[in-house]
Amino acid sequence: MKIINLGKSCEENAKFILAKKCRYCLQVIKVQGPVDDICISTECLALYDSSCKKKLSCGHQCYGCKDEKNCLHCLNSSCKNYVNCFGLDEDAYCAICYTESLSCAPVIKLSCNHIFHLKCVLTKLENRWLSPKINFNHDNCESCKQWMSAPNNPDIQDLLNKDAELFELVKKKTLERMKFDGIDKDPRLSNKSDPYYSKPLEYGLHKCAYYMCYKCKKPYFAGLRDCAGGPADNQQNQNNANKSFDPTHLICGGCSDLSGVAGVTDCKKHGKVLHIFLIL
């Protein structure tokens, strides 16, 4: 990686370039950490702890994570063992954070061959959906939008497997709800010019809102987009819900006495539905 220290003279910059720098923060190492290319900052030590400690057969450092089944291929584009995966090398930026190169933190390679920082993928999966309505966008690769798969990293794959189980449950509930409400007969599904033509599941996930019950940790039906006062009655309601919501107020009917509870709407079509409490 080419590093230029702005604000210094040519001589000072030349010394800076030749100096030993930390693999992660790229600062000159004043006090060496556990190995010669790691400093003793708390953040860098934490990154080192989650990294693979092995050297590859070519002599370059493995930029992968500890406990992976197999080492990542060499990311040095000048190395004969470099594998060109979409042009991603040690100097390429992580496509999730776009703030640091891949060499600045342990990385993970997905089955689709895209490479990201482990911490970025982990944060993405742990944050999950950012609105009350359950969705699975966080499970998609940031680059190719495929459902992520990371068989080489047990911790990441475990999170993905749990989301896959949740998706199957939401899918089952959505298809049942579509039949109950007659959504499966919606003319949009038979209109060839409609984006939901012959896509019943996609349309059902668009129409039906499922929230995660804070108590039982199971998804529950929260209404349809076209229900008056429903969870996504209009774009303004959806935007407000996305801005701020308290997950502790998302309670399914089985875990709560709905009589006299604020936030319950009495939909003529679906009966009593418990919605979120917005924090304004």
What does this structure look like?
The chain has 280 residues and is of the alpha+beta class. It folds into 3 domains: 1-49, no CATH class; 52-125, no CATH class; 154-274, no CATH class. It has 6 helices and 6 strands, in the order H-H-E-E-H-H-H-E-E-H-E-E. A two-stranded antiparallel sheet has the order 1-2. The protein has a two-stranded antiparallel ribbon with strand order 3-4. Helix 4 (154-181) crosses helix 5 (200-207). It starts with 9 loop residues before the first helix and ends in a 6-residue tail after the last strand. Residues 275-280 have low confidence and may be disordered.
Give the key terms.
single chain, 280 residues, alpha+beta, two-stranded antiparallel sheet, 6 helices, elongated
Q: How many domains make up the 3D coordinates?
A: 3
What is the count of DSSP helices, taking H or I runs of 4+ residues?
Answer: 6
Name the strands of the widest sheet in spatial order.
1-2
Shape label = elongated
Q: Helix and strand string, N-terminal first? A: HHEEHHHEEHEE
Structural class: alpha+beta
Mean pLDDT: 84
Q: Low-confidence segments, ≥5 residues, pLDDT <50?
A: 275-280
Major β-sheet annotation: 2 strands, antiparallel
**Integer-rounded radius of gyration:** 25 Å
For the secondary structure, the number of strands is 6
- Cα(first) to Cα(last) distance is 46 Å
Assign a percent range to the helix content.
Answer: 25-40%
Percent of residues in beta strands = 5-15%
